[in-house]
Amino acid sequence: MLKIGAPERTMPKFELLRALPLRWTLIWLILPNLVIIAMWPIGGPSMAAPLFLGGLYAIAVSQLPSARLRRLGIAVLFALVLGKYVTKSFNVDDLNILHMTAYFGQLQVFKAPEYLLAAAVLGVALLVALKYEARAERFTSMQQLLMAGATVALLVMADTYATAGVRGTYKASAPEGFPVDSAMLQNTIAPDTVAAKNLVVIIVESWGVPNNPVDKTIDDAIWNPAQWSAKYEVDSGISTYFGSTTNAELRELCGVWADHLSFDFGSANCLPGQFREAGFQTTAMHSFNPDFFGRDEWYPQLGFDTIRFDQALQDRGARFCDGVFAGACDHDVPRQIGDTLRERSGSRNFIYWLTLNAHLPISANREMGTDTCDLGLPAWRKDYPILCRSYTAQRTLANSITAEIMRDDFPQSDILIVGDHMPPFFPRALRTRFDTTSVPWIHLTARRDGKGSAPASLASAR
C-alpha cells in the first residue's frame, strides 16, 4: 500500500531553487537594467558584456556590511549602466561617459517624450532600489552565490537573444589595422587637386544608405543628381564609417579612424590646415552650440581660421530651430555659405559645414518642415512616421543646398556632400532598413564650361 506523506529531506535540485535570491535579483539586477530590458522588444544595442560585468559588480557590492556603501553602490551602478547604454546606442567612445552630465546639460531632453519616459522609469527604479535595498538577501551559502551568478548569466543570455537582429550595427571604432576610407580620400581632394576657386565640404547628420527599395526611391528623389548637372559634374558613391559624428569629422577632415577624445590634435596634419597653408581662407560652420563635444577647442587645431556656431549663424540671419538639439536652422546656412564666398571674392576658400537638424530624435517642428510629411505612400507614412520626418528633414536640407549652389552668382566651387553615419534609430524595424557599414557621398565638380567654368589659371592646375 502506497504511503503518502512529506519526504524526509528536500532533493538537491530543490535546495538550489530555494537558494535563488529573488529580492536580490530584483533590486540589484532587474531595477538597474530596467530600461535595457524594456527595450528588448523594440531594439537597442547588445549589452551582454556590460550586463555581465555589472552583475559581478552587483554580487560584490551587495554584500558589503555598510548600508550606506551599498546604497552608494546601487547609485553608481545605475549611472554606469545609463552611461554605457547611451554611448553604445550612439556609437561613441566609452570615455564620453565621463562627460555625460555636460552633454545632457547642452540638450533639451524634455523635448523628446521617449527620453522623458526613460528618465522617469530610471528615476522610479532607482528610488525603489534605494528604499528596499536592505531587504535584498545577504548570501550565507555557496548555493545562494551560485544562483546569483546563474541569474546574471540568464540576463546576459536573454540580452544576447533579444539584440541578435541588430548585432554588428553598433560600431564605435574601427578594428585594429582596418584601412581608412572616406569620401575625401576616394575623390583625392587636396589643395593641389581642387581646380575650382573654392571648396565646400558638407557633412550631413544621420544621412545613411537605405537598403529598402521604398526608402531608396525617396532618398534618390531627394538627392537626385539631375538637379545639379547643368552646373556641375556629379559623381556619387559610398564609403565606410565607424562611430558617431565626431568620428566622421576626423575621418573626412583628417583621414583617420579616431574619436575627438583620443585624437592627437597637437600633431595633426588635417586638410583644413593644408588648405590654409596653400592660401585658402578656412571656415567651419556648425548649427549647434560650440561646447558640445568641445568643438570650439579642437576646430581651431584642425586649421580653421573662422568658426561660426549656432549663435553666430543666427546673428547673421539664420532662424532658430527648436528640438532636443536646438540651434540654427540648417536650411538657412547654405545662403550664408554663398554670402561668405561672395564677400571673399578676391580669395580662395575652404568652407566646412556640419549640419544639425536631422539629428535623432526629430520632433514635429514647423521651422524644420517636419510638422507634416507628404513623402511616400500614405501607408508608408502611417507605418513609419519617425522615418518620414527624417527624410523630410533631409529633403529640406537638400532643397536649401540646391537653391543656393544653383544660383547664377554662387561663386565657382567644388562641393562634397557626405553622411556621417546611418540614422541611429532604436527600433530594429527602422535600423535594419539601412546599410550598417556605409554612408553616401556626392561630389559636385564645377564645370569648366558655361556658368560653371573655372578661370584659366585654375583650370590649368587641374
TrEMBL record:
Residues 267-367 form the Sulfatase N-terminal domain. Keywords: Membrane, Transmembrane, Transmembrane helix. The chain crosses the membrane at residues 21-42, 112-132, 144-164. InterPro entries: Alkaline_phosphatase_core_sf (IPR017850), Sulfatase_N (IPR000917). The keyword Membrane applies. This is Sulfatase N-terminal domain-containing protein.
